[in-house]
Each structure stands twice: as C-alpha cells, then as structure tokens.
Amino acid sequence: MKKILIINGPNINMLGSREPGIYGNATLADIEKAISSLAKELKVEVEFFQSNHEGEIVDKIQSVKDKVFAIVINPAAFTHTSVAIRDAISAIAAPAIEVHISNVYSREEFRHKSYIAGVCIGQIAGFGVDGYLFALKKLASL
C-alpha cells in the first residue's frame, strides 16, 4: 500500500481560529479527517506531521526516505524562507506536492516566491481544504 506523508508547517495548528477570512473555519483535525476518509477510498496510507519548527520538518522529511511513496506539504510561512526544507525534499527523491489553503498569489508580494515549488511535481493554492484532497488524489494515481 502506498504511504503518503502529509506535512503542515507553522501556525497550521491554529486553523479554525486563525484568520478565518483567509483560511476558513476548518481545523487541522478537520483537514486530517477529510484526508483520512479519502485515503481509505483511494486505498493509500497517510501519516500526518505538523510542526512550527523548521528543523523538525527537515528531520521528519529525512526520516521517511525510502519509507513513503510521496509527500503533500503545506510549508506555510517556510514556503518563502526555507532552503533547508527544499533541500530535504530534493534529497529524498519522493514526489511531492506543495499545498496552500489560501491563494498566496493574491496576497502580499513576499508570499509570491516559493522556495519549495521547484522541487515539487506541482503546487495547489487557493482551494482551501480541497487542495489537500486534490494533491492526495494526484499522488495516489501515480
């Protein structure tokens, strides 16, 4: 069975109460429940990881080398700053899709640059929780 790691970066643990006008009312638990439900239908296994710390995300990515088929990652604010996360994804050579709940390209200029997208097979932004589901469907089909 294909195993897909779902990584969420800083402040994603605050969803539901954090800027609902931008991020909606779904909590991280709601997102994980929706992903788990779809994973069951797609017959893939998912593992969830969330951290507010860049090094922990790097460590997690490195720890799954040769253990997961693919990664869905919402690097959140690290999207625009982390060469370390980019390099970790590149090093494990598993297909990855970058996901953002909001449309980062309709927001502040600094959010328009992703260090992560270049090592991913795709990027999904602006579709809320559905972005995770789109990414999971695509990776399960590979």
TrEMBL record:
Keywords: Amino-acid biosynthesis, Aromatic amino acid biosynthesis, Lyase, Membrane, Transmembrane, Transmembrane helix
GO molecular function, one term: 3-dehydroquinate dehydratase activity
Pfam families tied to this protein: DHquinase_II
Assembly description: Homododecamer.
Residues that coordinate or bind substrate: 74, 80, 87, 101-102, 111
Cross-referenced CDD domains: DHQase_II (cd00466)
Domain of life, per lineage: Bacteria
Residues forming the catalytic site: 23, 100
EC class of the enzyme, as a word: lyase
Enzyme Commission no: 4.2.1.10
Protein name as it appears in the record: 3-dehydroquinate dehydratase
Source organism of this protein record: Endomicrobium proavitum
Gene this chain is encoded by: aroQ
